[in-house]
Specification:
alpha/beta, Rossmann fold, 2 domains, 39% helix
Amino acid sequence: MGKKAFLSANEAAAHGVRLSRPHVVAAYPITPQTTLVEKLADFLANGEAKFDYMMVESEHSALAAAHGASMMGARTFTASSSQGLLYMCEMLSYVSGARHPVVMVCTNRATANPWNIFGDQRDALAMRDSGWIMLFVESGQEALDAVIQAYRLAEDPEVMIPVMVNLDGFTLSHTFDLVEIPDQTMVDKFLPPYKTTNCMNMDDPKILCHSVGPDFHAEVRVLQQEAFEISERKIVEIDAEYGKMFGRSYSGLVEEYRTDDAENVLVALGSVAGTIRVCVDMLREKGEKVGMIKVRSLRPFPKAYFAGLRGRFKNLSVISRDISFGYEGTLFTEVKAATCCARTIFSNYICGLGGRDIPKSLIIDIFGELKERAAGKNIREVQFVGLRWNYYGD
C-alpha cells in the first residue's frame, strides 16, 4: 500500500513519472503544465528521484530531446500544453513513426487566437492523427495511475507506440484532491526496467528515422495500425493487472456508469465525467433512466465497443470540449460514426470552451433536453450550450 497526499493533478502526474523511474526528463514550461515539470525538478533537487533533467529552449526541442534519448534506449518523459503541443507537431510524427515509446502529459488548454490560458481539449484533439496513443483522465488519481500504465503500454514489445496522457487544464491541473501514491517497490514490480532493441547500438548498428519511398511507406503505416489494434487489448489487460495490484482500475478503453437500464446517455471525455456522475446519481434518485459513458482512450478509439451499442439507448449524446470548425465536436464525430443506428437519436453539446465552467445545472438541463428529444421534440443535432454562463449555477 502507498500513502495519501493532497495533490493537484499536475503534482499527481509528476509522482507517476517519478515512480516510473525515467532516465531523461526534457522540460519546457507552459501554463497550465508548468507546475508538473517544476515538481519533477523538486524531486530531483530533494534526492527523491534520479534522472537527467534537460531544460531546453522550446517545446519542439523538448520532444526532440526526449526522442533522441529514447533512440539511445532511455526511458523518457516530457510535457506540454496548447501552443506548445502545436509547436511539437513536427516531432510528434517523428517519434511515433520511429516507434519510440516516449510518454508525455498534455495539460489540455485552449489554443490561440484569441489567447486563452484555460482548459478545453482542442490542443490534443488537433493532434489525434499524429500516431500517439491518447488517454484522457478524469481525476488526479487517474492521472498518476495513467502515467505508470502509459509506460507499461508504450514499452510493450508488441506496441512500441508513444503515449500522451491528457488532463484538463486548471479543472484538474490546479485543483487539489486526496491521491494515493503507490509504493515504489510495487510500481517496480508492475513496471520493469525498459529494454529494447529499437535503439542505437555500436555492436548492432542500425538506421533509425530513415527515408522510405513509395514502395515501402505504406507497409510502415500498416505496421503502425496493427500495433494500435494490439494496443486496444493491451490497454484493457494492463489496466486490469494494475487494478489487481493497486486496487484501482479504469475499465480499460471505456467505462459505463449506471447504464444497465438507461435510455438517455451522455458520452464524456476527461474531467467533466466527474460532474456527470454526480448528475446521474441525482437524476437516478428521481427515477430518471440516465447514464454515462466515459471514453478513456481516444486513440485507439473503442470502435468495436460503440458499434455494439446500436439501438441500446434512445439517446446517445456527446459532451464536446472542442469543435472541429465547419463540422461538429471531434468526439461526437467518432462516436456517431462507430455507433450509427437509426433507432438511436444522436446529439452533440459543445461546451466548456476556453475553460468555461460546466456546472451540474447545465448537465441536468442537457439530460432534460434528451428526454424531450425522446418524446419527439425537435432539437438541433449540434448545439453550443452554457454560453449564458451567468444563468447556470449550482
